[in-house]
Amino acid sequence: MENMVVQGFVLLDVDVVALNNAGKSTNTLNDNGVATKTIIKNGRRYVYVSGQAWRYWWREALQKNQAWKLSPITREAKIAFTNANPIEFADDDMFGYMRAATEKIKDEKGKEKSMNITVTRTSPLKNSAIVSVASTFPVENWSSMSRQEGEAVPYFKQEYSAIMKGMFSLDANMVGTFSNYNRTGYMNLSQKLREEAISKGAIEIEDPFVEKQKLIRLPKEVREKRIIDTIQALKYISGGAMQTNNMGDVTPKFIILATTNTGNHPFSHVAKSKGDRDDVACLDIEGIREVLNEYRDTFIGKVFIGKRTGFMDDHSDSLKALANEYEGLVIYGAVNEMIDAYCAQVQTQLS
């Protein structure tokens, strides 16, 4: 089974936003101050959105725009878990789970008994945090909760404008493919779910990495739909804190999509700060060219690069020239057009 990994890199362009807050600000003299998430690297400050928040937006986009029925959440004491049924719920398959549960089974004499099981599923979809490309300094702005009567209640929030980068990897062979043998991290399905999967058209295949073990694989059309829905959801993804007053568009304004036969993400450093301007973001065209040369043997099919008109237009000619230079390997166009073209390629690649 050839390794098949969807690799994605995106740039967002947001203005006056507070996408992911960090609770009460400790850097203000005001009582009602809310801080946004920032991190320090090489002595410079960058704003970011946690990987968990991005996944939350993604899951919601799949529910609202791809009509996914999300796995119900159960809360017990201080823990919460999903249904852990990747056969019925695509988000359990794509985003992973861990659940300790009790399942009723019949023993050799046909008597029903309860059995404790723990099922786990490593997420096929892995993503980074979303981090500003260039150093960014949030500003503290004053707002108020006010009506016609009484005094206004002031509060303070941090806001910023930034070009932000994120990347993700999706193990296509893992989607809709499950193990259920007794080994940490490999008990994806209970016996009951294994039987349910087979009754719904799943088949057993050899595990290419564990000798004498079988995997349960859902039909190709199910796996294909889950992968394509996940990528298509990027067109519609929305989210972030304070959207009522600080609405920000978090759909990609620049995207690279490629299939590789390795798990390593090659496009992590193709955006950077501009020369000696730590606060200005730009694309690294030479960096993209270097990736295309050094990882050419790992690409399966074509590399799709999309850019929204009006965003980083000073790079448009260079990107067109890059596509011409790597004709047959690189396709360049509008963001949603490239998402559609890449999804069409996936349909030809999935075994």
What is this structure, in a nutshell?
By secondary structure, this protein is an alpha+beta fold. The protein is built from 7 helices and 21 strands.
How does this model look, in words?
The chain is 22% helix and 38% strand. The protein has helices at 51-65, 90-95, 191-199, 220-232, 285-294, 316-325, 335-349; strands spanning 5-17, 21-24, 33-36, 38-41, 44-49, 73-76, 79-82, 97-106, 112-121, 125-127, 130-132, 139-145, 153-171, 177-178, 203-206, 214-217, 254-260, 271-274, 277-283, 299-307, 330-333. Strands 1, 2, 3, 4, 5, 10, 11, 12, 13, 17, 20 and 21 form a twelve-stranded mixed beta sheet that branches. A three-stranded antiparallel beta sheet has the order 14-16-15, with helices on one face. The mean pLDDT is 90.
Task: Set out the fold topology.
Layout: E1 5-17, E2 21-24, E3 33-36, E4 38-41, E5 44-49, H1 51-65, E6 73-76, E7 79-82, H2 90-95, E8 97-106, E9 112-121, E10 125-127, E11 130-132, E12 139-145, E13 153-171, E14 177-178, H3 191-199, E15 203-206, E16 214-217, H4 220-232, E17 254-260, E18 271-274, E19 277-283, H5 285-294, E20 299-307, H6 316-325, E21 330-333, H7 335-349
Parallel strand pairs: 3-13, 20-21
Antiparallel strand pairs: 1-13, 1-17, 2-3, 4-5, 5-11, 6-7, 8-9, 10-13, 11-13, 12-13, 14-16, 15-16, 17-20, 18-19
